[in-house]
Amino acid sequence: MAAKLGSSGALGGRRRADDDLVEAHEINVTPFIDVMLVLLIIFMVAAPLATVDLGVDLPASTAEPQPRPDKPVFVTVKPDLSVAVGEDVIARDALISALDGATQGRKDERIFLRADKAVSYGELMEVMNLLRNAGYLKIALVGLDGGS
């Protein structure tokens, strides 16, 4: 019996033709799924960092000036915290109705916001929040060229 086991390939080192391994023709997708999950996690973490909650275009002081529209709509916050649309000084509660009249109700028109140096950041943010809550999301901050 020992000689017979040796000739079958288990002990003798020889194999029969029907003992060959069958080749697997399937792709192992487990590493592919692992890589995809890692990429998904990276994009889920990076996506909130790439979005901005408040749409404001702030050009650098060395950038080329953007072309102005034919009739830009300016909202100005004066040192006494009064608000003006164009050249007309208005009350803050009438700001949205005045803007609707100046833009003919187009909420996608760019609003140019300018403020005096004496106006605090909080007051400027209040006006920006009023604009944003009214649906005016394209707000450009106006500054002087030259950086001083």
Write up this protein.
- The chain has 148 residues and is α/β, with parallel strands linked by helices.
- Helix content is 33%, strand content 14%.
- It is built from four helices and six strands; from the N terminus they run H-H-E-E-E-E-H-E-H-E.
- A six-stranded mixed β-sheet has the order 1-6-5-2-3-4, with helices on one face.
- Helix 4 (121-133) links the parallel strand 5 (111-115) and strand 6 (139-141).
- The longest helix is centred in the first third of the chain and has 21 residues, at 30-50.
- The chain is rod-shaped.
- Mean pLDDT is 76; it is low at 1-10.
Name the descriptors.
148 residues, alpha/beta, six-stranded mixed β-sheet, 4 helices, 6 strands
What value does the average pLDDT take?
76
Helix residue percentage: 25-40%
Order of helices and strands, N to C? HHEEEEHEHE
Oligomer: single chain
| DSSP summary: helix tally | 4
The low-confidence runs, each spanning 5 or more residues with pLDDT under 50, are 1-10
- Molecular shape: rod-shaped
Summarize the structure.
The protein is built from four helices and six strands, in the order ααββββαβαβ. With 148 residues, the protein is α/β, with parallel strands linked by helices.
